[in-house]
Specification:
315 residues; alpha+beta; 7 helices; elongated
Length: 315
């Protein structure tokens, strides 16, 4: 049980703010998920909101994320959430007055089999019912939209005009600005270190002192399992997650892409291939290839490979 509170002064975005004694809701983790949660709670009218980040915002996996923004899913709920996200991102820069790179390039999702085409037809039906513009295209139309593709082993594709990519760091900062403007507090360089409980209140321990709250949101990224374990003595459960290796490759400038951009003033659609398990998108005048490896390596899974105390801005 915590018997006393200490007040520290932190510098946040160029102005000073005291670490409060209490809050309604505390969010642990300053990546895009945590800051988006903060923004939406503030937008819903919640007061006394606090977000804690051990380093800078985006210092975890957000800063190097590819930032692809799909709407496709075989799940109704996920498709609806992704559709909402694309609509949010289109107007967010203006809404919060923060510059942000969001490229709506469209995408082609390849089908190597008739069964995959059937899945696309089902997804198209869900998308149309939700007000989206998903379209099944044949190989001739695919070649028109993506002139560099070979189509000899394909059945067709799903075209999504609202797919694209966004800068995850800029998105996070835009959401953070909107959150602050609505009265939420963000404390950077303030690590959550543990959890306690006093009657019906949670006590979030930090390296700057404890904060009392009603609700704690675990948005700690690859530290989410560690944070989740703090709640097990109070009836919580272990967070079933693992950290996996992933890679993406960036090419140098490709002259054919330069010529196409000059001719069309538009980037290539993002190309997705779920059967071969990769995405390929235009990055400036080169390409970004992100394969999803079937034999992935798990990291930080045991005592021989422990989770580092701090992995901020590292790969």
């Amino acid at each position: 049980m915590v018997k006393s509170f200490r007040i520290f002064t932190l510098s946040i975005g160029g102005y000073m703010s005291e670490l409060p004694k209490s809050a309604r809701i505390i969010i642990i983790g300053g990546g895009v998920v945590g800051v988006s949660c903060l923004y939406h709670l503030a937008k819903a009218g919640c007061k006394e909101l606090v977000l804690l980040e051990k380093n800078e915002l985006t210092a975890g996996s957000t800063w190097h994320a590819a930032g692809n923004v799909p709407t496709f899913s075989s799940s109704w709920a996920i498709m609806n959430m992704q559709r909402y996200s694309t609509e949010l991102y289109r107007g967010l820069s203006k809404a919060v007055d923060y510059p942000m790179n969001y490229h709506v390039t469209g995408s082609v999702r390849l089908a190597h089999s008739k069964e995959r085409m059937q899945e696309f037809q089902r997804a198209k039906g869900m998308g149309i019912y939700q007000g989206m513009d998903l379209e099944i295209i044949d190989l001739i139309e695919l070649k028109e939209k993506y002139p560099f593709i070979e189509v000899h082993d394909l059945e067709g594709a799903l075209f999504d005009p609202n797919d694209g990519d966004i800068d995850p760091a800029q998105l996070t900062q835009a959401l953070a600005k909107g959150s602050r403007d609505m009265g939420a507090s963000i404390f950077r360089f303030c690590s959550a270190t543990g959890i306690g409980k006093s009657k019906d209140k949670w006590i979030v321990e930090t390296d700057k002192g404890p904060i009392e709250c009603d609700i704690v949101v675990n948005a700690a990224g690859y530290y989410a399992k560690t944070v989740g374990n703090w709640f097990i003595p109070y009836g919580g459960r272990s967070v079933p997650m693992a950290v996996m290796s992933h890679q993406y490759l960036l090419t140098e400038e490709i002259p054919e892409l330069v010529r196409r951009v000059d001719e069309t003033n538009h980037k290539l659609p993002l190309l997705r291939d779920v059967d071969s398990s990769y995405y390929l998108r235009q990055e400036k005048n080169g390409l970004n290839l992100g394969p999803y490896e079937r034999n992935c390596r798990v990291h930080w899974k045991d005592e021989d490979d422990p989770l580092p105390e701090d992995f901020s801005f590292q790969l």
